[in-house]
Amino acid sequence: MNPHEIDLHKELKKYFGFNQFKGLQEQVVRSIITGNNTFVIMPTGGGKSLCYQLPALVLEGTAIVVSPLIALMKNQVDAIRSLSSEPGIAHVLNSSLNKTEVNQVKKDITSGITKLLYVAPESLTKEEYIAFLRSVKLSFVAIDEAHCISEWGHDFRPEYRNLRNIVRQLGDVPMIGLTATATPKVQEDILKNLDMPDANTFKASFNRPNLFYEVRTKTKNVESDIIRFIKQHKGKSGVIYCLSRKKVEEIAQVLQVNGISAVPYHAGLDAKTRAKHQDMFLMEDVEVVVATIAFGMGIDKPDVRYVIHHDIPKSLESYYQETGRAGRDGGEGHCLAYYSYKDIEKLEKFLSGKPVAEQEIGFALLQEVVAYAETSMSRRKFLLHYFGEEFDDVNGEGADMDDNVRNPKKKVEAQDQVVTLLKVVRDTKQLFKSKEVVLALVGKINAVIKAQKIDSMPCFGSGAAFDEKYWMALIRQVLVAGLLTKDIETYGVLKMSPKGEAFISKPESFLMSEDHEYNEEEDEAIVTAAKSSGTADEALMVMLRDLRKKVSKKLGVPPFVVFQDPSLEDMALKYPISIDELSNVHGVGEGKAKKYGKEFVDLIARYVEDNDIIRPDDLVVKSTGANSSLKLYIIQNVDRKLGLDDIAKAKGLSMDDLLKEMEQIVYSGTKLNIKYWIDEILDEDQQEEIHDYFMDSESDKIDLALKEFDGDYDTEELRLMRIKFISEVAN
């Protein structure tokens, strides 16, 4: 059948049940059907897979689809089989098949039943498969996730780099490259590596107007902030991304403890658990999935309402793909990322073990992430510029869906500085990256500047009136405005654009937004201040101390046995008015709350009532006792009378660390009977002497006890006795 005579709309309706194509789909399908090499750049959710599935179904022969993920292949094969009564219409060929299954696949291809064959790049290197595929009719080869071909893609796969040579061995078949994310640099790389410079290229817009982009400073209170955010979006589905498995587990636990239904998802869980958690999310049995980037590949949940990045990702490609999982149905989608430069430094550390070429790429990609997080211009405009797309940040669709646009930073005139910057780029022969350009501007020397003798040029130090941060921010904004461009061949090198040349000869107004200052220490103060003017409620504190004294007198124990000072301070900050809330206060466990708490919460409740205090109820974030499994281990093994040195060794702790853990256990109200261990070190008289000291003392501080006993006992002995004392007297 002549490809030009195929009624595409009829076929679309027949196989997929759609009445019309979406976006660029129809043009792409026509290009493929007429046998052209084709390159498709289409954001996730844009209907990318239909672009090659439909041609495969209507053309003669079998289409080969190269895909990097086994799980994805399986999903797609199942989806296509559901369109046809013939299960052999689509097959997978990868390492998971046995001999019999492989033979069945070959049989279905030979008899012309199989229209789509999904293969992993590794399978294509097997001699026997290549020989077989050469002997059958192939319609085309589609390479999905084609950014893996580019070393500039965010998950560089060596076996992908060799695909062109492998495909050549199959004979002269058209090639289709598809990717959901590609910067101009990556696009060029893909076309070069697939050796198809003549390909018809189709690029859909990367703008997702319904997504709201927001970046917040990451402080110590990031967990409370996330919980508050989720509670404001109660009943909606969301995904939280973390970089490490450990973090995923921790955050999932903290959410569960705080009454949010959440499950973890990462590569360390077995396949069954992962599948179960994914299904729970899809079926809405849980609200939130906390995941590493292993999650979401091929997740087709249209109503994810928010995506939170607890850790900033390694590249803007990853960020775009992960945020793109929100609001696929066109409804609300909130993309919230927490940023701290410390995280970037951590990621740089990870890179340091890699080969030099890979390190350089990794650093360049990270710099883009920093620029995105710190910029105060429209984030949407910045992101789209990164993907090679112009965006009108006044009238463009979704222009106000952005924290920077809604809370604009002060703008300052920077016309003269832009001229200075452009001249430095021009006079240094357009050979350098941002870092060197900035150093040349402020007049600082590094190895490159010395070697190139830039320090003896007249432009050296011409921008010394401003600091490095200022120039970095200006470079970013000048790039987006198109006065400078980043060279694609030598990535990161700043080049003049014609627009920039014109600006030097005829400068005009250039309003620069002042960059965000991400200073965690300051923000820390602000957050605490916001909680309740940064300090505990002094008046309440006095009342709590009096009550503690009264209770301790009545029970005949020192005040610190009832509650320690930090616990009282936390009460005067959080205003707990139930035993349940009290067990949430610093250093107060359930046992302690039940034993001493009633009078304290009654007092606080009265105080709150009398003074019309608005309680920060959302600040009462329960902690999981992040290392609760360690505490449990200690409690169980002390019960078994195991030697403390053995417990410490088993968990890789120093004695000091073990004592700290034990102190936390007894101070929050749990008994630890360590008499068996102390009996080995101190005789009864010595134990009694120290016990009496703590009983009569106003304070449980060890340095005071050391002074009192003047060298008779060492720190460790006193700490062990204090643990025994608190355990017996307080709990």
Can you tag this structure with a few keywords?
731 residues, 5 domains, 49% helix, Rossmann fold, single chain, 17 strands, DNA helicase activity, 11% strand, Arc Repressor Mutant, subunit A, 35 helices, alpha/beta, 7-stranded parallel sheet, isomerase
Please characterize this protein's 3D structure.
With 731 residues, the protein is of the alpha/beta class. The protein has five domains: 3-203, P-loop containing nucleotide triphosphate hydrolases (Rossmann fold, 3-Layer(aba) Sandwich); 211-406, P-loop containing nucleotide triphosphate hydrolases (Rossmann fold, 3-Layer(aba) Sandwich); 411-513, Arc Repressor Mutant, subunit A, CATH 1.10.10; 535-619, HRDC domain (DNA polymerase, domain 1, Orthogonal Bundle), CATH 1.10.150; 628-730, Arc Repressor Mutant, subunit A (Orthogonal Bundle). The protein contains 35 helices and 17 strands. A seven-stranded parallel beta sheet has the order 3-4-2-5-6-1-7, with helices on both faces. The protein has a six-stranded parallel beta sheet with strand order 8-13-12-9-11-10, sandwiched between helices. A two-stranded antiparallel ribbon has the order 14-17. It is globular, with a radius of gyration of 32 Å. The protein starts with 7 loop residues before the first helix and ends with a helix. It comes from Flavobacterium fragile.
